[in-house]
Structures are given as structure tokens and as C-alpha cells.
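wait is this the right file?? whatever heres the structure
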């Protein structure tokens, strides 16, 4: 769906995007992560033909960008650097004008399309207030509604949950997963590790303009070789597993072992009551910080 080769963008002496090879496959929920100022938005704008690359190649939906961007955009929904809208008009009126200006939208079904888009982002019952009176979160929802007007094959979103409260973030996450399950590929640029960890299936990490990591999320969150055990008998477990316990916090044990099932059988056989047992996996935060190194701690947590 999206492929770049040695994609580079310079602004004078500043290299904003540095030889990036990106691969977004059909059906991905791709989390494009990076601290603020790492080049994420510049790259997103190049994908949409809004900024020209200094060098390198871009393909979106199998077509070169920006040469054939006009053929691509009808199948792409996008939200970049916040939604654009006429502040004196209502959200519904803004979407109606946007739909009328775009290709392929029939006039007879316009009202229905606009209504469905507003419904999906939770703005269906908003009154006729002008957009200038909207909160930041409402503006973000309106921008996402605009991206959904044409039922796109590909969604390219830059910080779509900016300004939303925790409930709003959860609603948008669930909407994006639903859209993806219905066949829409999602490319989400963000600096929120926790959000991408809950939403994404594939992750790319950019730092100082360079792509430093790209892989499936499941592969990145590999087992650490330790098992987390909850037991009301921690002392008995400690005697059974002498030398294998790496940490203990009350009835929670961290045990050096690579097979939870075998460990469970061992403990139960020794009379230890096991309340919970899970293989420990690396968090996305651990993966990203290891890939980006010192000085790249500008990632955000949940908003």
C-alpha cells in the first residue's frame, strides 16, 4: 500500500527525512512512531504529494507519488497536522462542501455520506455551532470524519487523537480497528507508544529522520525468557525454584524460565497454588527506547 525507497527531504542544511525505506502492507494497522521533531509529519506530507522529496521514491497504492497523486487520492483518507475547515460554518456544512468538491461523490447520496461520517466519529448530534466554537477534540473528530467520507482503501493519519480525552481516544481506536477489519489499511503517525501498542499490528520507528526499526508488533514484543507468576505461596515457590527467581513483589514472582506450561506443572506438582502465570514480553516502550538510544525520550504516554 505504501513503499518508499531512500526517501530523503532536506530543508537547506537540515535533513528532515533521511533515506527512509518504508513498507506498509495491505491490511496493516501501521504505527509510525517517533518523538516530536523526528520527521514524521514531513514524511506523511510527502506520501500525499503535499511536499516534494529531495530524492528517493514513493509508491502509494502501486502508483508513483507525486507524479500520479491525482489517481491515488480518491482512495485515500487523510488527516495531517489537524483538520482544515471554514470556522464560520458548521461541521456538517464543511463536510458537505468537501464532499461536493471531491471526485466521485454523487449529489443524491451526499447527505447520507456526510451523516454516516459524522455518526462514526461521534458528531452526529452536534448542533449548528460554527467550527470555530468547537473544542480541539471535536475538530479532530471532524477531520477524521472528512477522511472517512469516501470509504477509503487507505487511511493516513497524523496524530488523530490529539486533544481527545481518554474516552475519545478509546472510541477512535475502536473505530480504526473496525475500519481495518472491514478492509481499510491504516497508517497512523504518532508519538504515543501506549496507543500504538493497543492499536497497531506493525510498527515503524523514526528517529532524527532515519527509520531505525520496522517489524510486526508481535515479533517486536518477543518473550524475554522470564515468566510472571502470581501465587499465595511465594515462600514455597521460592524453595522449589531456588536460584531461578529474579524478583519478588509480595505474591508476584519473576522467574527465569522459557516455558510457562512446564513451569506451571512443576509448581503445581510441588503443591504451590498458582493464581496466574504468563510469559513476560518486552513492552513497545522498551523496544523503541532500545532502538532510538539516549536523547530520544520525547515519546508521550497515554493522554
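ok assuming it is, sequence goes like this
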Amino acid at each position: 500500500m505504501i513503499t518508499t525507497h531512500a526517501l530523503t527531504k532536506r530543508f537547506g542544511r537540515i535533513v528532515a527525512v533521511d533515506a527512509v525505506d518504508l513498507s506498509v502492507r495491505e491490511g496493516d494497522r501501521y504505527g509510525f512512531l517517533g518523538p516530536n521533531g523526528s520527521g514524521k509529519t514531513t514524511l506523511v506530507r510527502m506520501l500525499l504529494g503535499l511536499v516534494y522529496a529531495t530524492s528517493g521514491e514513493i509508491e502509494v497504492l502501486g502508483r508513483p507519488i507525486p507524479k500520479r497523486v491525482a489517481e491515488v487520492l480518491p482512495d485515500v483518507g487523510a488527516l495531517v497536522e489537524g483538520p482544515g475547515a471554514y470556522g464560520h460554518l458548521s461541521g456538517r456544512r464543511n463536510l458537505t462542501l468537501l464532499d461536493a468538491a471531491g471526485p466521485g461523490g454523487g449529489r443524491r447520496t451526499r447527505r447520507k455520506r456526510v451523516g454516516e461520517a459524522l455518526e462514526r466519529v461521534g458528531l452526529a448530534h452536534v448542533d449548528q455551532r460554527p467550527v470555530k466554537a468547537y473544542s480541539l477534540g471535536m475538530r479532530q473528530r471532524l477531520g477524521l470524519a472528512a477522511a472517512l467520507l469516501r470509504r477509503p482503501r487507505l487511511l493516513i493519519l497524523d496524530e488523530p487523537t490529539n486533544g481527545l480525552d481518554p474516552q475519545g481516544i478509546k472510541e477512535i481506536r475502536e473505530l480504526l480497528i473496525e475500519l481495518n477489519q472491514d478492509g481499510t489499511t491504516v497508517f497512523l503517525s504518532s508519538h504515543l507508544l501506549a496507543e500504538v501498542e493497543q492499536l497497531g499490528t506493525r510498527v515503524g520507528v523514526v528517529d532524527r529522520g532515519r527509520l531505525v526499526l520496522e517489524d510486526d508488533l508481535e515479533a517486536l514484543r518477543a518473550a524475554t525468557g522470564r515468566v510472571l507468576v502470581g501465587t499465595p505461596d511465594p515462600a514455597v515457590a521460592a524453595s522449589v525454584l531456588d536460584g531461578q527467581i529474579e524478583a519478588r513483589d509480595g505474591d508476584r514472582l519473576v522467574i527465569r524460565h522459557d516455558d510457562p506450561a512446564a513451569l506451571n506443572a512443576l509448581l503445581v506438582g510441588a503443591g504451590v497454588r498458582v493464581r496466574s502465570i504468563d510469559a513476560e514480553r518486552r513492552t513497545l516502550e522498551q523496544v523503541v527506547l532500545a532502538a532510538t538510544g539516549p536523547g530520544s525520550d520525547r515519546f508521550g504516554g497515554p493522554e
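The first strand starts at residue 2 and ends at 11. so i think its the right one actually
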